[in-house]
Amino acid sequence: MTRFFSFSAAALLSIAPALAANATTAQPDAKPAPVAHTAKATAPEHKSAYPTALFCGTWAMMAAADAIEVVANKATGPAARLLLTLPPMYSRVVKQEHFSLTRVDGATWTASSPPLTLTFTLQSENTALLVINSTDGHKMELPLYRDETRTQTP
């Protein structure tokens, strides 16, 4: 019987520091300490500023899918535009083939032609995201990659 008590006493003594630390930090009437936010949540997300020429070219969702063509006009500053042409497989769905996009920030261009809003965002030099929103609540997101394998027709 004394072995049981000595074992119990040793076990209690080994966990006593943990219980004491928990008892001092967990007070029932105290407000919980605020959770520290991660650096990503507090710092604004840094978007790269890409030159207009980097948006231009042939973009595709898959190798078998038709390509989306993006060209820039010759204007600079606020008059600069990207001219985006959707292939028939997408233009049949959204009922529009050509879009004229204006720069929002260093990585995003947008076009609004009711009932559609189109946003073209570069995520890296070779990947982009094309989002088409409709006022009736429909949304189409196309993750794109730069498709240099296709030959552009003049």
List key phrases describing it:
154 residues; globular; alpha+beta; single chain; 8 strands; 8-stranded antiparallel barrel
Q: Mind explaining what this structure looks like?
A:
By secondary structure, the chain is of the alpha+beta class. Helices cover 25% and strands 31% of the residues. It has four helices and eight strands, in the order H-H-H-E-E-E-H-E-E-E-E-E. The protein has helices spanning 2-25, 39-42, 52-55, 88-94, and strands at residues 57-60, 68-72, 82-85, 98-103, 108-113, 116-122, 127-134, 139-146. An eight-stranded antiparallel beta barrel has the order 1-2-3-4-5-6-7-8. The radius of gyration is 29 Å and the shape is globular. Residues 38-44 have low confidence and may be disordered.
Radius of gyration over all CA atoms, rounded: 29 Å
Q: Look at the structure and give the mean pLDDT.
A: 79
Low-confidence stretches: 38-44
H/E series, N to C?
HHHEEEHEEEEE
Shape: globular
Largest sheet: 8 strands, antiparallel, barrel
Kindly, what is the distance between the CA atoms of the first and last residues, rounded to a whole number of angstroms? 96 Å
Number of beta-strand segments: 8
Q: What is the beta-strand fraction?
A: 25-35%
Structural class: alpha+beta
Instruction: Report the helical percentage.
Output: 25-40%
Secondary structure tally, helices: 4
> What strand line-up does the widest sheet have?
1-2-3-4-5-6-7-8
